[in-house]
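FAQ: What does the model actually see?

It sees only this:
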Amino acid sequence: KIEDCISALTPEEFALWSRRIKKAYLSLGKKEWKLNEKELSYRVKVERAVCSIGNIKKGNKIKETNVILKRTSNSNAIFELSEVVGKKAKKNIKENSVIEKGVLL
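And it is asked to produce this:
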């Protein structure tokens, strides 16, 4: 029979361990994660839109190698690569242009 008392914590050690666990749990924060007003404003300023790297001809399927993300003030821009890659161009898209909503099939 093996006795556990050699590796057991004293009441004081257990209390310290318990306080540390509670403190670590609190450091995890809240379940909800929301941006404050300043963070939201910053996010809008630094959000990147999908842009063409080169000319894309009407009817061509857009690949990840045809596009890049860049900052823009264009409010009609597409901001998600997944909304562009694999789609076909409705019209010719010039090199270094923001890919806007409505120009893809």
